[in-house]
Amino acid sequence: MANGLVTYRGHDLDRGDVIPSANHFEFFEDFFQQINEFPVAGAADSLAELQYPGVLISTAGTPATMTPAIAAAEVGGAIAFDTASDAIQGISVPRCVIDPDGGDWFLETRVKVTTVEGTGGFRFGLQEDVSVTDTMSQDVGAASEDQISMFYNAGSDTAGLLETLICKNTAQTVSGSAGVAGAQMESDVFARLGMEYNSATNRIYFYFNGKEVAAEAVTNVSDQLLHPFIAASHDAMGDIVVDYIYARGSR
User: Fold this and answer.
1) Is the pLDDT confidence value at 170 over 80?
2) Which of 83, 72, 207 is nearest to 136 (CA)?
3) What is the three-state SS of 54-92?
């Protein structure tokens, strides 16, 4: 940040040119807005949860399972959610809808995990189910949770070394527990995570700090509409801090 101007240097994240809005869309959330109390549906009038406009922070994607948004003290604006319990928690952006096999798209976030440790799990990408708990259940088998994600979990050989996953119904393409070289998350250090579908090559590319680290065929890409999410589990991880979420896609 210089002289009040924020510059993003993520892979292909050049917002200087206007994209044609008739057949493309662009979503950019930099988390500058005010966190407000939102009433919990079906609960007492006095029960409310701190939430950020346009995103849902929860365990299972419902108003009753909302968890608090935290204003993170980071240059350029940021939001956080904690992992104070062993329950899976995360951010979903259900109104930012991408057709994963319907044309070119690109997704990026800048995020950090306060404490990377071997018993926790972290995941970023596109999901069909608004419940991050259900999305993370794909870890334990063919749970029919469509997604495209970068993740690590307790089964990863190296704590914080990201793997990739593309899942449709019960079929999935996963890079494996050895992880992806060059995609190492570190404690309390921001990383830019990105993914991109190129219809010309019919492949999905994965990026870490602006560098391509993996590419996969779209054999098991979902035929459903997906939306961005970030999720984590295990109370020893501390806060998950999100600087921004950016998406660009075909209408």
Assistant:
1) yes
2) 83
3) CCEEECCCCHHHECCCEECCCCCCCEEECCCCCCCEEEE
> DSSP 3-state assignment of 140?
helix
Phi and psi (nearest 5°) for 65? -110, 20
Neighbour tally for 225: CB within 10 Å: 13
Three-class secondary structure of residue 137 per DSSP = helix
Q: What's the rounded Cα separation, in Å, for the pair 53 and 60?
A: 18
Per-residue confidence (pLDDT) for residue 10, from 0 to 100: 46
Phi, psi angle pair for 59, to nearest 5°: -100, -35
Beta bridge partners of 168: 171
In this prediction the pTM is 0.88
Please state, in angstroms and rounded to a whole number, the distance separating the CA atoms of residues 117 and 25: 37
Looking at the DSSP bridge assignments, the partners of residue 92 are 56, 229
Specify the residue for token string 């590319």: 205
Which CATH code fits 24-250? 2.60.120.200
Domain parsing of the chain, residue ranges: 24-250
Number of alpha carbons in the 13 Å side-chain half-sphere of residue 81:
28
CA distances from 251 to 12, 19, 54, 233 (A): 19, 12, 20, 33
